Amino acid sequence: REPRQHPPDGFVHRVQKEMTPAVAWPDGRRFAFTVCDDPDAQSLEVSRAVYGLLDDLGLRTTKAVWMIEPPERNSPGETCESPESLELCLALQQKGFEIAYHNGAPGTLHRSDIVRSLDVFRTHFGDPATMANHYNGDAVYWGVARLSGPARLIY
Fold this sequence. Notes:
globular; 3 strands; mainly alpha; single chain
């Protein structure tokens, strides 16, 4: 088998520069990474401990949240209908943590409840900039629309 041929040095970076504008990372850094945490099975006690540590270390991450209680749950974890959970998330946002939308609830919602959950999110946190799907029937790319099994291998 022939060894893989690599493009000349600098070729990939030159082409990439032509395709995308340079990113200005904070403090002149050359790269950045992020952590996105979803609320699956996370208790309020664990959230306080984890985000207290992250705050103490000066790290700012993304915390995804559920806004409302569903008719039927498919996962344990806090929603923002809990006043204590909402208070924690608002405090985290004030400290610079990003709050993301993790579908409306830990369970499948009807369209009207999805719209309501987005309205509640906007009321508390502003427009969602980040969204991480939860495994709900109402999730984008879930169920038959999800790329999994043999289709994933082909892809």
